[in-house]
Amino acid sequence: MTATKGLEGIVATTSSISSIFDGVLTYRGYDIDDLAEHASFEEVAYLLWFGKLPNAQELQSLQQDLSNYAAIPDKLIQQIKLYPQDANTMAALRSAVSALALYDEAADDMSREANEKKAVQLQAQLPTIIAAIARVRQGKEPVAPKAGASIAENFLYMLRGEQPDETSIKALDQALVLHADHELNASTFASRVTVATLSDIYSGVTSAIGALKGPLHGGANEAVMKMLNEVGTLDKAEAYIQEKLDNREKIMGFGHRVYKNGDPRAKHLQKMSRELGKMKGDTTLYDMSVLIEETVTGQKGLKPNVDFYSASVYTQLGIEHELFTPIFAISRVSGWTAHILEQYDGNRIIRPRAEYTGLTDQKYVPVELR
Ligand code: ACO
Q1: For a disulfide at 155, which of 36, 126, 127, 205, Cβ 3.0-4.6 Å?
Q2: What are phi and psi of 31, to 5 degrees?
Q3: Distance (Å, whole) CA 311 – CA 326
Q4: Is 14 left (phi over 0), alpha (psi -120 to 50) or beta?
Q5: What is the CA(245)–ligand 1 centre distance, in A?
Q6: Cα(19)–Cα(190) distance, rounded to whole angstroms?
Q7: C-beta atoms surrounding 346 within 10 Å
Q8: Would you kindly state where each structural domain of the chain is located, as residue ranges?
Q9: 182: β partners
Q10: Dist. CA 37–CA 46, nearest whole Å
C-alpha cells in the first residue's frame, strides 16, 4: 500500500454534479462561462440540486421557498450575541450552522424529501446567519430578511440595513454563481465523508465549513486582501512579492491542484474587479492585483485562482475582509448540499487506508519501568 500525498490524482468517487476537463469547469454539463454570463445564482442552485435548469414556475417556487426559509430562530440570534466580539467569522459560522440543527425537528429525518428541504433551508439561512454575525460584531441589531429578494440582494440588504444598489447585487450574484460548486474540492470531500457515515446534512455542512476556513482553500480570499493591504501602494507591489518568492513563501490566491493553466473562474472576477474600480474612479486595488499577477506568473508560472480577484471585488463592494470566506460558504453550500444528496443516493461509507510508517514490534513496558 503506497500513499499519495494530498490524494493528488486519486479518483475518489463518481459524481454527476460538476466536472473539470482540460481546464473547463462545468456544472451539470453547462460551461461555467455560459452560466456566469447568463444565469442567476438561484437557477444555478436549482441546477446543482435537481440536475436541470428550472423553468419559470420551478424557479419562482424555489425563490419563494428561499424567501420563506430565510429567517433564523430567535434563540440562535441570542446565541450569536454571546459569541466573543473578536471571534473568527468562519468559526462563528461553523458554530451557528451546527446549532441550527438543534432547532430543526427534521434534522435526523433521512428521507430524500426531508433532505432536499433542508438543503434549500440551509441555502436560505446561511446568508442570514452571516449577516447577523457581522452586525452583532459591530454592535448593531440583526436585520430580518427581506421577502422576495434574491440571495445576493437579501444578503447585502441584511448586512447594510438598507437597499443595495443594482451593481452590487449583480456583482455578488455572479460571484456566487462562480463559487457554487467545484468537483471534489476539500470542503465538498469533507462533507461527503461526514454524511457517508449516514450522519445528518447539518453535520456534513458543518464539516465543510471547517474545511473551507483554511487558507489553502476558501480562507485564501481573506489572506489575499490582507496581502493587498500590506502591499499598500502600487509602487511597493513588485518588491513585496519578490521578497516573498525569494523566501519561498506561498502567495495567496495563486496555484491550484487541478488547474495548471489557469482557473476559468478567475477571468470573470478579474473583469468584475476592473469594472468596479472604473465605476468608483479608483483602480488602485485592481492595478495592484494585476501587477502581482504579472510578477507571480512571470517568475513561477503560477496563475491566479478564484480567490485572487474576488478579494478586490468584495472590497470594492464595501464588504469587510472577515466576510470573504463566509460569502464563499453562502455560494458553496449549494454545491455541498447537492453532493450530500448525491452521496446519500447509493451510499457506501468512505473509509480509505493509510500506509503505515510508524514503529513496529514494540512490547508493552509497565508505567513504573518507563
Ligand atoms: N505561491 C508560491 N508557490 C506556490 C504556490 C503559491 N501560491 N502554490 C504552489 N506553489 C509551489 C509550491 O511551493 C510547490 O513548489 P515546490 O515543488 O518547489 O515545493 C509547487 O508550487 C506545488 O505546490 P503544492 O503546494 O504542492 O500544490 P498543491 O496542489 O498541493 O496545492 C494549493 C494547491 C493549495 C492551491 C497551492 O497552490 C496553494 O497553497 N496556493 C495558495 C493558497 C490558495 O490560493 N488557495 C486557494 C485555492 S482555490 C480554492 O480552494 C478555492
Answers
A1: 127
A2: -60, 135
A3: 13
A4: beta
A5: 12
A6: 18
A7: 7
A8: 18-215+321-346, 219-317
A9: 184
A10: 17
H or E element that contains 360? none
Interhelix angle 284-300/234-246, rounded to 10 degrees, is: 30
Atom number in ligand 1 closest to CA 308 = 44
DSSP assigned state of 161: S
Q: Quick one: cell of 222?
A: 481573506
Ligand 1 binding site (Cβ under 6 Å of any ligand atom): 6, 216-218, 220, 250-257, 300, 302, 305-307
Active-site positions?
256, 307
Pairing of strands 30-31, 18-21: unpaired
Helical H segments across the chain, by residue range: 32-38, 41-50, 56-69, 74-82, 89-100, 112-137, 151-160, 166-179, 186-195, 201-212, 220-231, 234-246, 266-280, 284-300, 306-316, 324-344
Query: Would you state the pLDDT for residue 260?
Result: 85
Ligand 1 probe mutation, 18, 32, 216, 297, most atoms within 8 A of CB: 216
Considering only CA atoms, which of 304, 308, 310, 232 is closest in space to residue 276?
A: 310
Query: pTM value?
Result: 0.97
From atom 32 of ligand 1, which residue's Cα is the shortest distance away? 256
Crossing angle of helices 112-137/56-69, nearest 10°?
50
Specify the residue with its C-alpha closest to ligand 1, atom 49.
Answer: 217
| Other C-beta atoms lying within 10 Å of the C-beta of residue 58 | 14
CA distance 214 to 218: 6
Calculated CA dihedral for residues 342, 344, 346, 351, nearest 10 degrees: 100
CATH topology of domain 219-317: Cytochrome p450-Terp; domain 2 (1.10.230)
Architecture of domain 18-215+321-346: Orthogonal Bundle (1.10)
d(CA 123, CA 135): 20
Strand order in the sheet with 18-21: 18-21, 24-27, 30-31
User: CA-to-CA distance for 232 and 240, rounded, in angstroms?
Assistant: 10
pLDDT in tens, 152-173: 999 999 999 999 999 999 999 9
DSSP 184-206: B-HHHHHHHHHHTTT--HHHHHH
Q: What ipTM score was computed for the predicted complex, to two decimals?
A: 0.98
